[in-house]
């Protein structure tokens, strides 16, 4: 069975939670979080929650754990905190919570960033995706350019397919 058949069998909608990881942004100043919400809604996805959390390892892990336990969230998309400064903990926190990783997500994100936008600096990105329980988890940089690239070119085109695979795994367990 090919990818086109998988996409036909995928759910038509996915309920998403957006989490901006920042020590300084508020809902009034969070352009990247709002951009993700707008792009998802334009593509027909449902945004059921939107939060801002500090760039703290424990807080980020609690967001993942909490989302996995909610029936109104099928996917959680983090933005911010993916760099290499001492304060950036999103990658470590999210990665530590995943049951399965989707290595191609980060690889493709860095490739597209390298090719289309930032050149060799793309190697500094620690975008990551995977699955926790029955929840898809994505973590992307917080710049508007990175958010637009990841959401439009990677997340939106494949999110229903990701959910089909998650639900397929659930049906066979």
From TrEMBL:
One of its GO terms (biological process) is Mo-molybdopterin cofactor biosynthetic process. InterPro entries: MoaB (IPR012245), MoaB/Mog-like_dom_sf (IPR036425), MoaB/Mog_dom (IPR001453), MoCF_biosynth_CS (IPR008284). Keywords: Molybdenum cofactor biosynthesis. The keyword Lipid metabolism does not apply. The keyword Ribosomal protein does not apply. Pfam families: MoCF_biosynth. Pathway: Cofactor biosynthesis; molybdopterin biosynthesis. One of its GO terms (cellular component) is cytosol. Residues 17-162 form the MoaB/Mog domain. PANTHER family: MOLYBDENUM COFACTOR BIOSYNTHESIS PROTEIN B. May be involved in the biosynthesis of molybdopterin. This is Molybdenum cofactor biosynthesis protein B. It comes from Texcoconibacillus texcoconensis.
């Amino acid at each position: 069975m090919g990818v086109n058949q998988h996409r036909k069998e995928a759910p038509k909608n996915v309920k998403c939670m957006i989490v901006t990881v920042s020590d300084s942004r508020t809902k009034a100043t969070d352009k990247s979080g709002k951009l993700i919400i707008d792009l998802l809604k334009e593509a027909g996805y449902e945004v059921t929650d939107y939060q801002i959390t500090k760039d703290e390892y424990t807080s980020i892990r609690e967001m993942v754990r909490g989302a996995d336990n909610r029936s109104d969230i099928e996917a959680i998309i983090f933005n911010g905190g993916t760099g290499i400064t001492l304060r950036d903990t999103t990658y470590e926190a999210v990665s530590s919570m995943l049951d399965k990783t989707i290595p191609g997500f980060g690889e493709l994100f860095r490739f597209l960033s390298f090719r289309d936008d930032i050149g060799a600096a793309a190697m500094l990105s620690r975008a990551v995706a995977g699955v926790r329980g029955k929840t898809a988890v994505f973590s992307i940089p917080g710049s508007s350019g990175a958010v637009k690239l990841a959401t439009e070119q990677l997340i939106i085109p494949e999110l229903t397919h990701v959910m089909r695979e998650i639900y397929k795994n659930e049906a066979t367990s």
